[in-house]
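User: Reviewer 2 asked us to show a designed sequence for the structure in our supplementary figure. I'm pasting the structure tokens here. Could you produce the per-position amino acids so we can include them in the response letter?
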């Protein structure tokens, strides 16, 4: 009996020193969980950029310090106080919004700082239905050389899919411009546009067919855009300033600025649209008609742009907030002097047509007012912390450009 006790004590001691030896090999490896965008998950952002990979680095393998998803939202910072190679596995869990996701990387030990961000297997259908913010627990687990070195749980806020992030101040102070995210709310594929709205536009009689730029006639393009305007006016779309944002002139890192945006289907159902909502609704319909729209933004406003020709030589603007406005007739007289004025359309559609021309005129005036400030189709979205966020909010971007880059329209019901 005594021998068995001694043997058991010896085995326990051996196990202890074995584990201690393994643990000592990991001394100097520090891990810190990272949740980008200020501890928030924006379903709109991860959905829209799920296949885009626009932040991918071309760093050589031996110099890599970042592993995994270039647009990752959940990851781990790893600090080596003692250099040495290691195989590190990071596991992220949050059953409410994702399947268990992991990434394994070989760290060569040539650097003291590494980041690992697994590509998350989100529950996409669920995220597309989130309309109210809620808290969720995310668990981070890290293994180094198959030994557990960290497991911790953090509380995040899952934002509404209607919350559109347009700027993110990284924990390092770097500013990540995200104004392109407004383009993700343009949904030219939504059934309500293809199966409902376009047939209704055809039945107005303003156009006989949807031709996009095939006619090579700018006046015909205008006629198609007016047909969209007239139908939305008939459907009772009214300007509504209802919005929610955290657009603050002062900030401390990390911080994400966002704007509430209605989906095109929501604007049609509610018959309400603010400047952003109306712009993405019009852009959705025009892009479906093969007329290339643009979104124009300033710190306080948003309106539509569109090209009058396939070569993009003629750029026009439209103040969408006027679509449901009843403008006094005396204020509409001046529009008859515009080059694109069509007397026949004026006689048939009266105030609707003249208000449309006024919206074209005001859209151009808005653009000219800030013309020197606009950034167009940015190729780089990362800026120094010295750049004022307000200066990045003057932008003009083409929907077609971001679609070709892989920016997905957000699913809505």
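Assistant: Here is a per-position design you can include in the supplement:
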């Amino acid at each position: 009996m005594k021998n068995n006790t001694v043997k058991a004590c010896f085995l326990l001691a051996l196990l202890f020193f074995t584990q201690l030896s393994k643990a000592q090999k990991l001394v100097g490896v520090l891990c810190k969980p990272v949740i980008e965008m200020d501890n928030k998950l924006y379903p709109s952002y991860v959905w829209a950029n799920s296949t885009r990979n626009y932040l991918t680095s071309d760093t050589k393998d031996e110099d890599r310090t970042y592993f995994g998803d270039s647009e990752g939202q959940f990851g781990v910072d790893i600090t080596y106080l003692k250099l040495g190679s290691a195989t590190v596995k990071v596991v992220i869990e949050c059953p409410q919004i994702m399947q268990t996701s992991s990434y394994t990387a070989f760290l060569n030990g040539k650097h003291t700082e590494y980041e690992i961000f697994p590509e998350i297997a989100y529950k996409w259908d669920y995220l597309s239905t989130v309309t109210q913010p809620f808290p969720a627990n995310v668990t981070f687990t890290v293994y180094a050389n198959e030994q557990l070195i960290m497991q911790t749980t953090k509380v995040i806020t899952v934002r509404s899919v209607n919350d559109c992030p347009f700027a993110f101040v990284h924990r390092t102070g770097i500013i990540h411009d995200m104004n392109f995210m407004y383009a993700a709310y343009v949904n030219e594929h939504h059934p309500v546009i293809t199966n409902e709205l376009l047939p209704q536009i055809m039945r107005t009689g303003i156009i006989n067919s949807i031709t996009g730029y095939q006619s090579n006639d700018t006046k015909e393009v205008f006629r198609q855009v007016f047909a969209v305007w007239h139908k939305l006016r008939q459907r009772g779309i009214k300007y509504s300033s209802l919005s929610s944002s955290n657009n603050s002139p002062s900030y401390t890192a990390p911080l994400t600025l966002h704007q509430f945006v209605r989906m095109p289907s929501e604007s049609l159902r509610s018959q309400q649209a603010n400047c952003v909502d109306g712009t993405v609704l019009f852009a959705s319909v025009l892009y479906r008609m093969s007329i290339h729209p643009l979104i124009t933004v300033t710190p306080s406003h948003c309106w539509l742009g569109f090209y009058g020709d396939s070569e993009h030589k003629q750029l026009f603007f439209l103040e969408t907030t006027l679509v449901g406005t009843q403008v006094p007739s005396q204020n509409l007289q001046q529009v008859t002097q515009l080059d694109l004025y069509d007397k026949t359309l004026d006689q048939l559609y009266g105030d609707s047509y003249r208000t449309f021309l006024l919206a074209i005129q005001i859209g151009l005036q808005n653009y000219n007012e800030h013309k020197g400030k606009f950034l167009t189709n940015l190729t780089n979205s990362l800026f120094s912390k010295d750049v004022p966020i307000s200066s990045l909010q003057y932008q003009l971007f083409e929907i077609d450009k971001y679609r070709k880059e892989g920016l997905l329209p957000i699913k809505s019901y």
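For the response letter, you might also mention the following. Residues 10 and 331 are 97 Å apart (CA to CA). The chain has two domains: 26-161, 179-405.
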